[in-house]
Design goal:
This protein is an alpha+beta fold and 195 residues long. The chain has five helices and nine strands. The termini are far apart.
């Protein structure tokens, strides 16, 4: 019996010392905010093959210049669903598109987090005091925030005001948002957790 136990112990030690197959993936080199990725934002890490998430980005993938949709922690492996693009939009269902919208009040947009569900309301740029009619309309209901790109230096130098928010919408909602954005002030309401 002692011989059998010793053999089993030796076998267990041999299994424990056997190297675990590892795979190289791209990960966040530091805590990242949503926005455009640059090469210094990324690092290569080796993780066990069994722990590699589906859609993991591999070294050499053209990631620089792509938009990170949500914050990422240092060392977190990045996947296709973390970047703004077809895979992320497809995750919200067939027929959905990514629609960038400039919310007039940047402070209100800062309240948003990826995954929030909002309504977008358009108001006339000028209040019609004679008619006491603010002329508002809800142009998109229950749309999901999929990215909150951070401002870049070049964007800061532009005269545009407000904050950019990327939403998952239908084509019809995208058309209404685009039309409203050309001559109206866009604001938001945020849905609660009970949806």
């Amino acid at each position: 019996m002692a011989v059998v136990l010793a053999a089993m112990a030796a076998g267990s030690v041999g299994l424990a010392m056997r190297p675990v197959p590892a795979t190289e993936v791209l990960a966040a080199a530091r805590d990242l905010r949503p926005g455009t990725l640059a090469a210094p934002d990324l690092t290569v890490v080796r993780i066990p093959e069994a722990a590699v998430p589906d859609g993991a980005l591999r070294p050499g993938a053209p990631v620089a210049g792509r938009v990170l949709a949500a914050p990422a922690r240092r060392g977190e492996p990045l996947t296709d669903l973390r970047l703004l693009g077809p895979a992320l939009v497809d995750a919200y269902g067939p027929g959905m598109v990514a629609t960038p919208v400039r919310i007039t009040d940047a402070g209100a947009a800062r309240l948003l987090r990826v995954g929030d569900v909002i309504d977008v309301i358009a108001a006339a740029a000028q209040w019609d005091e004679a008619r006491l009619d603010p002329r508002t309309a809800t142009v998109a209901q229950a749309v999901t925030v999929i990215a909150l790109p951070r401002a870049t230096a070049s964007a800061d130098s532009m005269t545009e005001s407000g904050a950019l928010v990327v939403l998952a919408t239908t084509l019809e909602q995208a058309a209404r948002l685009t039309q409203a954005g050309t001559g109206s002030r866009l604001s938001i309401t945020i849905h609660g957790n009970s949806r």
